[in-house]
Write a structure and sequence with these properties.
Elements lengths: L5 H5 L20 H5 L4 E7 L4 H13 L4 E4 L1 H6 L6 H9 L3 E4 L10 E2 L10 E4 L11 E5 L4 E12 L2 E6 L12 E3 L2 H17 L4 E4 L9 H9 L12 E3 L11 E2 L7 H13 L2 E7 L8 H12 L4 E3 L1 H11 L2
Length: 324
């Protein structure tokens, strides 16, 4: 597909230079400007890696369009591989949205067991290990009849199977049809701690993105209670019908090169024009599969079709105004 040379028109600078100062064309569209467009697209980026500033922010700045960062403030405080708070504040002040992605990217939904757990076991085998990242985390192992609580000591794999090691033996047997998850109180604490840190940096938290896409079980109810909008409630899609829209059950399409072709990106934007939907795309800027070219291609695919690129909170402000 032929691409217009937006960069020449905008006089854009190359990625890797100093952070772009937005010109004000966006991200404050206003309701009227969005209504004159063919629809709305929200760009979301997960995990708050430093590439969100050195790559994603730069490319978006070339087109004067915003995105949304699903931030993990714990990672930001602990490693220079992630955004510095001041960088995220700068992005936010220049119109970017900020969403919670939990404090340290914890999977809130449950994971299935792959073996029976006997009373006294200190190791549990799971379908995929998402709850053993942080030693000291409390977990619940349960089936239809029994429930046992434990504390994470570590994680690993043997013979191709993932496991979680526990500090103390479990006191109940759990069938292989069961699951492992965090306790409800701990999930709530994670969400509260995440928001408190982001808000302490003077950032408005406007929604949530599930780490690893794990929305299952009680986590779904807790997140619904805590946030007004979720960008990745279930897998697939990305076109969220505005009629009867539940903001806590929205989906998005990943635009990384191993998950979508250019033709699929184009078709996605065409549908965003043809149907009455709120469209959401997502990606991870630290991945090799979310290249500068792919970010630019996706933005241009939207702009060429006169789609307004907005943040999540801007999109809902427009929809609320439209319903009046």
């Amino acid at each position: 597909m032929h691409r217009r040379n937006f960069l020449a028109v905008a006089g854009a600078t190359a990625v890797g230079s100093a952070a772009t100062v937005y010109g004000g064309i966006q991200p404050d569209y206003g309701v009227e400007a969005v209504e004159d467009s063919e629809g709305m697209v929200v760009f979301t980026y997960d995990d708050s890696p430093i590439e969100d500033y050195t790559l994603t922010y730069e490319v978006h700045g070339e087109y004067d369009v915003p995105g949304c960062i699903a931030a993990c403030p714990g990672w930001m405080k602990e490693s220079d591989e992630f955004l510095e708070p001041a960088q995220l504040v700068e992005m936010h002040e220049n119109g970017w949205g900020v969403m919670s992605h939990t404090y340290r990217h914890r999977a809130l939904g449950y994971i299935t067991l792959i073996e029976d757990v006997e009373e006294g076991d200190e190791r549990i085998y799971v379908d995929i290990n998402r709850h053993g990242d942080v030693a000291g985390d409390p977990i619940v192992v349960f089936d239809e009849e029994n429930r046992a609580e434990g504390t994470v000591a570590g994680q690993g794999s043997d013979s191709g199977r993932d496991y979680i090691d526990l500090e103390e033996p479990l006191r109940e047997p759990i069938d292989a049809s069961g699951y492992v998850r965090y306790p409800e109180t701990f999930i709530r604490e994670i969400l509260e701690k995440t928001d408190e840190q982001l808000e302490a940096w003077q950032l408005d938290v406007t929604g949530f993105v599930y780490p690893y896409g794990r929305y299952h079980g009680v986590a779904e109810e807790i997140v619904r209670d805590h946030y007004e909008a979720v960008a990745n409630h279930r897998y697939g899609g990305g076109h969220n019908e505005i009629a009867g829209l539940d903001p806590t059950a929205m989906r998005r399409m990943y635009v990384e090169t191993d998950r979508a072709t250019e033709d699929e990106v184009d078709e996605f934007m065409k549908t965003a024009v043809d149907e009455d939907v709120l469209s959401i795309v997502g990606g991870h800027s630290q991945f090799d599969t979310l290249t500068e070219d792919r970010i630019r291609y996706t933005i241009e695919a939207a702009l060429e079709r006169d789609l307004a690129i907005v943040t999540l909170d801007e999109a809902f402000a427009v929809l609320e105004e439209r319903d009046r």
